[in-house]
Records
---
Amino acid sequence: MSRNSNMHLSDLLMKLYGNSDEAIFFFDRQGKTLAMNSAAEEIIDKDVYDQMMAGSTKAICTVCKGFTSSDEPRTCVSCYMSNPDEDISSFQVYFETKGRGLIPYTGSIQTIDEETGTRVFMLRDLTQQIKTQEELNQKLMMKRVIKAQEDERKRLSRELHDSVAQEMLSSLVDLRVLKYMNIEEDVLKKVQQTEGSLMRLLDDIRHLSVELRPATLDDLGLEAAFRTHFKWVEKNYGLVIHFNPELESKRYEGEIETVVYRICQEAVFNALKYADVDEMVVRLYETEGLLHLLIMDEGKGFELKNTDPKGTGLGLYSMNERAELVEGRLQIRSEIGKGTVIQLEVPIAKGGVDD
């Protein structure tokens, strides 16, 4: 390599040292600080800096809070500074920094001059990477929790429908047989009253079964599940839902269908409780690889920025959480006296899954 090339390389290395966002320390074989760049100076307090520059070999220990080993998340056993002949290319370490508190870093330490034993110690901030990883882990955990909830809902729904409801139906048949037997008038009247109570209880059990997990959602898909649910809402609450499906009997992944159904269910429930409306519109359609759910009402509306909305606010939070699980985007537009529009967009495999 030519002399000019050597000079150019030296300039580049000095610029890297001075301008790098990574904290860079140089130590001798005994652990005394030889130099550090500005990024390193920014993360340690002045008294620690003074101790390091004065030659203290233990000054770095006052800010280092341990590194992650295969046995412990933070340990000082076999410290990376304790063996001057060992190069460690990558490890996670925690430092108590100036003004920012405890920060995780990825560290590396290696000998750059064997004759003098000079080592370079470099730190790269891991805060954003760890935050991203935690968010990913949280989403994965939420997905598992919701899946477990839906599986349990499905099991309970089947149990209510196939066991409890069938036993109730058998009891009703037995009661109806009594009506045709030779019994006194007052006994017959009591049998008829009991029959009416059991019929109402049977309807409640069937409704609870559907609310837990509608069988039509698993067997026939979103369109059928929506029609069944909206018919029940109109029958029991008088809310007319104008439903316009445009899916042509397409099916989608089970997780997507569950999320879309639950978000719509929550939106309709909120409209029943707070919007004071007699009718609303629900559209379900697909465009350019996106499944769209559009829910509109012309009710009371609410202020989106209101920090103290009616109810607990958990419904809207739950809707957002569910949308994120399938990489969907949920938009809510509302204004006092002008109603509410809820729009969900979920990316899907091209063409969906045919029924």
---
Amino acid sequence: MRGQDLTGRLLVATPRLVHEEFRRTVVLLLDHGEDGALGVVVNRPTEIDVDAVLPVWQPFVTVPGRLFQGGPVALDSALGLVSVPGAADAEPLGVRRLTGSLGLVDLDTPPEVVVPELTRLRIFAGYAGWAPGQLESEIEDGSWYVVDAEPGDAFTDTPERLWADVLRRQGGDLALVATFPEDPSLN
């Protein structure tokens, strides 16, 4: 994986990754390069409605309408991940395309300006970040599976099932990993 740009791909925590912040997480990589990597955990909704922190955006967020914990870094900041239809080179006002239909919305942009250009929106508190070479080392150590993302992964209605769903669709040994119990000692 060294030297390969993983932007737009998913990191799926392997059963070896038992640290609570990333246990059974699915991370969408928003940026990956020689300066490190940045992503958001897409399967950790909180119990907090977006309304509690960004009330003007609440009517427009994708189900379940909750704030997601994007990772352990900068929990006091918010990222707006969006899906933008149309040509990959089109960037609506207030949106920066990342890869394919995915982009980040500037949450200071008035929603009525940008929302008509979007199909889905999810708000994340914090993000996951890696220093140069750190993510590659974690992948080599067996902490992460790197798999292709499907367009709806970041906006699924059932984020609590995403870890197993992503693994299951890989087939083979990874599909088997999806059946591992939460607590292996109960097996």
